[in-house]
Amino acid sequence: MVKVKIEKTAEEKILVAAKKVFVAKGMYGARMQDIADEAGINKALLHYYFRSKEKLFEVIFMEAAQKLFPKINSIFESDSSLFEKIEKFAEEYITIISENPYLPLFVLNEVSQDPEIFIKKIWGKQNLPKPQKFLEQIEKEVRKGTIKKISSLHLLLNLISLSIFPFVAKSMIQFTMGLDELQFRNVMEQRKKEVSKFIIDSIKR
Question: Which residues mediate DNA binding here (predicted)?
Answer without folding.
Answer: 31-50
